[in-house]
Amino acid sequence: MNIVVLVKQVPDSGSERGLAGDNTVERQSANNVINEMDEYAIEEALRIQAAEGGEVTILTMGPERAAESIRKALSMGPDKAVHVIDDALHGSCALSTSKVLAAALGTLNPDLVIAGAESTDGRVQVMPHMIAERLGIAALTGARKLTVDGGTLTIERQTEEGYEVVTAATPAVVSVWDTINEPRYPSFKGIMAAKKKPVQTLALADLGIEAGEVGFAGASSEVVEHAKRPPRQGGQKVADDGNGGAALVEFLSSEKFV
Amino acid sequence: MNFDLTQEQNDLREAVSALGRRYGHEYFIGKAKAGEHTTELWAEAGKLGYLGVSIPEEYGGGGGGITELTVVCEELSATGSPLLLLVVSPAIVATILARHGTDAQRAEFLPRLADGSLLIAFAITEPEAGSNFHRLGTVARRDGDDWVLNGRKCFISGVDHADYVMVVARTEDASTGRLMPALFLVPTDAAGLTRSQLDMEIVSPEKQWLLYLDDVRLPAEALVGGSTDAGLPALFAGLNPERITVAAMSAGTGRYALDRASRYTATRQVWGRPIGTHQGVAHPLAHAAIQVELARLMVYKAAALYDAGRDLEAGVAANMAKYATADAAALAVDTAIQAHGGNGMTTEYGVATLLGAVRAGRIAPVSREMILNFVAQHVLGQEKSY
């Protein structure tokens, strides 16, 4: 099975994050890592490869330093990577990002595309759907379990109430949550091999996309302004002078928690 | 001059750290107090190739050097879940076998040492010959093709779950009559080998053992290197990696203690401000951080010199690194406890649990006094004092 995993480099969600002067995500000063959910996508791809055979390719769109995340992704075990890199991509909206990724996927001819259900920077959760729409293939999104049976894919789609079983034929796009597996750590051999694995770089021209269709120029949405999250409000202290329990219940019910 | 690790070494550092964090200090202490081993962590690190980083690739290892093994030792310790036997099985024994073992010994032992499925302890210290291996009382006598070993060893780590013990004994050179060290691979279930546990005031999953060798009969193949001439160089081959990896563990432990303490002092509020805003609290931690970082630099210098094949210089650096990291780790743990106040002595806050280990670091595997002797003699050119 020919599997492509979408991997995005994002600022570490464990550190202070912000937006740059042009209202794009600040990446220059951030500690950039593989989007956490994408590690689950990589793991899932490697498990399917171990059972079904085939090849796992990492696909990343991002600036030059995203190469570091590609190398780390490859150290987990995938065979090769494609890095779409072009100065004109800076400021791209979700719609134009999906155009670029779909075009790159077109050159790879995958049976299965696996992505994290969301990125920790943008958090819009639309990329898998948009890519599937552009490629004219099925989207199985929000999986907590994925089963491959020949050319049939079945997922358990995680919902707030439980899960739904959804089936599609390959080729398809599957997005996964962090409930699907436990990603492996890169082995030392994997780390040593990562640098030697082929990484193909593609520019917009290679994909037949004009610079004006992407980046700020082609963006369908614009971040107009942003504000810091307001500081956390001091909580309400309940002194227990005998009726602490009642006071707690009163507070919880006033906030509609009970 | 370059103080950076390579990209791969940095990736290894991150990967080992992530693995160690998943286990952490609570796991380590839980196992120690239950009298169990950190088997799961050992097995997982082995499977990922972290235990075998320094073993040659042709024998299933990672093909890296002692620098890579140093990274593994330090990072696991920095997560509060150190693996003491990294110092023994991969650092000492595997290095000795890779450099001085026979082809058959390499083929038999190295692949399993690399994936951690085989554990070999190392026995040199004796009750009557502490630091002085020229006075070893364990004797190997030739009997036909066999060897027969007699003697006692003490402070031997991890024998209870090791498959073999590499025992340092001495033989008599037939022509000169001089006593020469010889190393033997003794199965832990060999007839005549018995052990008793030493009660230690160290919270660790690894126990310390007294070994008794009473007419332990071994085949000729048990002799490391297949010749008594291999003994001395083989022994020396193991000592630098031991010191460097022990030093790495101390450095990692120091980082762990300071990490715990600084997270505590940055968040613990007294009179409306974090206690870390008081210089009386912050400065001792900062001082300890400087000592730990200085000592770490020497650890990596020693590892780099060793991997460059500069054994003599590596020996000086390894001894200095071992001395400096032991003191720095003891200071860091003591300072971390003080910064925690009463909480510092609880098990929950996970710093006083390290007291025994860091104190022992100033004694084992070579005492600070012997290192001072070494530096006085070999660096400062003083006459031997003992």
From TrEMBL, chain A:
InterPro entries: ET-Flavoprotein_bsu_CS, ETF_a/b_N, ETF_b, ETF_beta_N, Rossmann-like_a/b/a_fold. Keywords: Electron transport, Transport. PROSITE patterns: ETF_BETA (PS01065). The keyword Nucleotidyltransferase does not apply. The keyword Transport applies. Residues 22-211 form the Electron transfer flavoprotein alpha/beta-subunit N-terminal domain. Its cofactor is FAD; AMP. Belongs to the ETF beta-subunit/FixA family. The electron transfer flavoprotein serves as a specific electron acceptor for other dehydrogenases. It transfers the electrons to the main respiratory chain via ETF-ubiquinone oxidoreductase (ETF dehydrogenase). Heterodimer of an alpha and a beta subunit. This is Electron transfer flavoprotein subunit beta. The gene is fixA.
From TrEMBL, chain B:
Its cofactor is FAD. Pfam families: Acyl-CoA_dh_1, Acyl-CoA_dh_M, Acyl-CoA_dh_N. Keywords: FAD, Flavoprotein, Oxidoreductase. The keyword Cytoplasm does not apply. InterPro entries: Acyl-CoA_dehydrogenase, Acyl-CoA_Oxase/DH_mid-dom, Acyl-CoA_Oxase/DH_mid-dom_sf, AcylCo_DH-like_C, AcylCo_DH/oxidase_C, AcylCoA_DH/ox_N, AcylCoA_DH/ox_N_sf, AcylCoA_DH/oxidase_NM_dom_sf. Gene3D superfamilies: Acyl-CoA dehydrogenase/oxidase, N-terminal domain, Butyryl-CoA Dehydrogenase, subunit A, domain 2, Butyryl-CoA Dehydrogenase, subunit A, domain 3. Residues 6-116 form the Acyl-CoA dehydrogenase/oxidase N-terminal domain. Residues 230-379 form the Acyl-CoA dehydrogenase/oxidase C-terminal domain. Residues 121-199 form the Acyl-CoA oxidase/dehydrogenase middle domain. Belongs to the acyl-CoA dehydrogenase family. PANTHER family: DEHYDROGENASE, PUTATIVE (AFU_ORTHOLOGUE AFUA_7G06510)-RELATED, MEDIUM-CHAIN SPECIFIC ACYL-COA DEHYDROGENASE, MITOCHONDRIAL-RELATED. This is Acyl-CoA dehydrogenase. The lineage of its organism: Bacteria, Bacillati, Actinomycetota, Actinomycetes, Micromonosporales.
